[in-house]
Amino acid sequence: MDLLSIAQLFVILLSLVLAAIHYHLRRSHVLHIVFALFCASSSMHLGYKLAGNYWAPYHHLIGVFGFATCSGYWLFSRAFFRKTNPINRHHLLFVGLLGVCLILRHLLRFSEKMWLLDNDWLPALTTVLSEAIALLSSGMLILAFWEGYRVLQSTIAIYRKMAGIFLTSFVISCASVMLFAAALPADLLAGEGRDWLVAFAYILILISTQGLIRYRQQQFDQKVKRTDSSVQEENALAHQIHALLVKEKRYLEPSLRVADIARELDVPEYRIRTIMLNHFNAKNFNHYVNQMRIEHAKTILSAPDKSDWPVLVVGIESGFASAAPFTRAFKEFAGCTPGQYRKQQLTT
């Protein structure tokens, strides 16, 4: 076995290992299943090339399974860079069309060589399929490039970094196979120059893509950890605010402001406001405090032994500075005035 065959065999094994790894992870994200498809198809494509020297024309039967190289990588690029609806039915139809053309061409070539068919329509049909494959493959490569290029405009530095790595490896690989290979002398490396470039392109794409997937997962894990830590901090802060306002009855202080609580807990005011929205379902700090004051006022207004207390006194005892704001707040939360509420409760 020559050195090129060893290199191709290495790429085949690498592709199969990556395909198995990502197929095992298929439930976590759609990008794993499409990358597994790309890796498996890549191994079959190189297996077809490798077996051509030893197992012709049966190597075309191996090539049948290498139908999702360009198309598989396009689907991967969509799944990697798009957050919502990365792959839809029309994408799969596009990929399926290319796959059918590739499979038919391999089957025609196998039939032609296996049974020595000599029909005028076979070469013409093979040529049509080859042109369609070239057109569709080129289109999918352009679309895969576009998926990475559009992310370069992102305001998030991590996304731009991943897009830059993706585009660099993608462009180098495509240029190696399509441009450099065409410029190579026909006798270079005993005519195997293009096959070496193909093996190099596969290695570059497989390793760089695997690195991108791992980097993306690391960023996601770090984000989850930061989120969990932030949630724990918010829960602890919410407990402290509740202890100050409810257990120590700070809400009964008429001059209480959000700045007072923030200063006492040594946190920015915006964090207090965030807690009010996320944990206490309150519009703002004053809304939450007034809600507790009104509940306190209701207990006073419902008490028979305090039925002679004026509304002003009830409001002051509940943390309001005067009767007007107390009445407005009471109507907002209870739907009636303090006097009407007292009358209803005492009558009941």
TrEMBL record:
Pfam families linked: HTH_18
The HTH araC/xylS-type domain, residue ranges: 235-344
Matches recorded under SMART domains: HTH_ARAC
Membrane-crossing segments per the record: 6-23, 30-48, 60-80, 92-108, 128-152, 164-184, 196-215
A GO molecular-function annotation: DNA-binding transcription factor activity
InterPro entries in the record: Homeodomain-like_sf, HTH_AraC, HTH_AraC-typ_CS
Keywords, sorted A to Z: DNA-binding, Membrane, Transcription, Transcription regulation, Transmembrane, Transmembrane helix
Name the UniProt record assigns to this protein: HTH araC/xylS-type domain-containing protein
